Amino acid sequence: MRICLISREYPPDTGWGGVGAFNYHIAHALTRAGHDVEVISLSAGDAARSSLEEGVLVHRVAWKHLLEELNLTLVAAPASHYVIKTTVALWMRFMELHKEKPFEVVEVPEHLAGGLFHAMTRELPLVIHLHTPHSKFISDCFHGVTPSFDNRLICILERIGILLADQVISPSANLAGFVAEDTGYPFERIRVIKYPVDTDKFKPEGPRALAEDGNLTVFFAGRLEERKGIHYLVEAMPAVVKAVPNVRFICVGADTNAAPGGGSMLAWLKKRLAENNCLDKVTFIPHIPLMEMPNYVRSADLCVVPSLYDNAPFTCIEGLASGKPVVATTAGGMGEYALHNERGLIVPPRSAEALSDAIITLLKDEKMRLQFGKNAREFVATNLNLARKAEEKIELYEQAKAHFAARKSDPLYMRGTQRSLRDALEVLCAYEQMMFETLSKQSLAFRTRHWFRFLKKRPRLAAANLLVSSYRRVAGKHATAPAFIARLEEAVEAQQKEQFSVTMSLASMLEDAAGKKTRTQEKQPIAVQ
To answer: How many domains would you assign to the chain?
Structure first.
């Protein structure tokens, strides 16, 4: 089967976050199963390139320069501006590749609406894989995401993709339930397929990064931020150290400016540890390459995932695959992987006391710890291995193709796939123009700044504009203008039509690439000399 995976994140360019790591694993699993897989992702810089990466053809698209003319939209709705311009970049590359050699199915994360154009045009079967929708960040107030117009617009765009998909997949029943309630999509139609893991890399046997020195090791991996619950783990550490003096904690993750009151979270955590005389018990590591991560997980006696919300983090799954019991919270789908009292212990979120009790229980009971670890490895090796997940994916892709065939003739957008981008860009340009006109009427400061920049950048056009507007204020809007003024008016109007020419050229590029004729350009009036 010819498959296209689209994801803003794909390692190593965009790091090893959950979405990127998932697409990396599934792309390689499907390729090894004999399928033709191509990945479209964002470039870390601003240079587009295509390359064969470990047997998978990856196309990285340039996106940072797109929609630069829509600067008022960038100011008013920066998050939506990012979402739209990256979605446009991914869609354009997809259409180029699809024309050269058609895909049979496309899979896109719901996060930040990467499948928006696919959903509206129904170009081919669409599979939406849930990770964590933007609306979840709003509802739980994570990462400073507020219920603003900007963020609500992103939620709407995500919901369009979900509701119009041919197949929706969730890594946990917990996340499926949230999305069903948030969108109205029937819960029973969401297929719960657990995340995969490379069981050949993450396994109990193999080298260890940490030498055995008589200490018991608790392992945490995740960004140092509120949502990952690292501050609750740090608050739990004094009780653990008191009960189990030979314990040590390894915390792997990048620092963030998410400390209470702002500033470095790492500095705040170290201060709290020093106040509780536990700083010497904790080692912070900012980053570990993926190839070395199994050696660190293998060195642990247990893994802890104290998240305030996580649908199914890979740190939990990789710990289970390595034969380690996991202490996690009920906030998300982690309990569906680290089953309570079988493969780990599940505790309420935001409770340092519950967290410390669970860690102490496992550290003190070696028999329980080893049995949970054995159960964990057996579960992962049987159910979450890459070959098994590739088979499940193909089954779902076939179902998506059948669903697509039954309703292909009923897309949300009916003006043709090639036209979709042009219409979307025209709406964005109209919104930008509306904001400009509104601010010009309401704000003297805005008008002053605008004319200052205009005079500096285009002095002759600015002078012509001033002359024409001054004449109209005196003579009236409908007065017959002298030939000279009329020619200037035509020139000014022509320049105004071209103010979004770079943005609109994206649509022309896509139409040209598809072998479509662009609109016949009207004869342009004389330019201002």
So the answer is: 3
